[in-house]
Amino acid sequence: MHDKKVKIIYFSVGESGSNEIELTWRKFSWILSSVFVLLLFLVGTSLALFTDFYQNLHISSLSKTNSQLQAQLVDIGGKIETITGRVDNLEEDDDHLRIIADLPKIDEDTRTVGVGGALDAATYVSSSELVEQIYDYQSTLAQMERRLELSEYSRIEVQKKLEENKNLMKHMPSIRPLTGGRISDRFGFRLHPVIDKIRRHPGVDIAAERGTEVFATAAGTVEKVVTKYQRNKSWGKYVLINHGFGHKTLYGHLSKVLVRQGQKIDRWNPVGLVGATGLATGPHLHYEVRKDGTPLDPQTYILN
User: Which of 137, 170, 203 is at the close of a domain?
Assistant: First the structure.
């Protein structure tokens, strides 16, 4: 095998003659091996160069994407900071409204429990911090969501309480039951003008001309109307109004009743006319305010 030779015949283009090269088998094998090694080297070098180029291109793309993400995160951080400021203002307004509505403030721990804050949006964020930054923003957004939900609930609570307060004030005795007149007998113990004995006076007497209009001092429902009475007994003709919230008012010694039992009335609606019916020495209105069945000084309720 090693004694054999390889003859290579080749032709020149444009010439009719031919040339030949004669090689030993050993030399021919060496040339083939060298060519194969050279091809392997060229292929390997090409692959390495291509891989390096691809990696550089990929890294460049990732770096660009990373920079864009950093810029977007900084922008989001700025927006979150703005929203946080608005939520702070909303909560400050909510605190004032709760004071007006006579409700306790929502403490800061309740608003922020279970959530953390975000990093400064203006801080440069490196690649290794992206995940942490995103987590911080998610935590902050969760905090904002909770605080907004609490503020929304608080506004509903405040609105409900203000409506209750408004309704309470509407049904709270707060005006003089008649215009003009003079208080002739006050609340408390007194010498009774007819029986000449010390008795507890459960209301006030307001002297006024017979026929003077008597007004309901708050909104409510007429609970009781008495038009039949015994001479020189009790309050004569009188009206009892239930205002709710434990408050009732009584208007006694009327000459005429202008309402009926069960009637809904508002403040300033006429309920009767001043008279001297029942146990009375002259025309006046006997006016009482009761809270949970206990007579209280009506003058502490009169605002006008």
Answer: 170
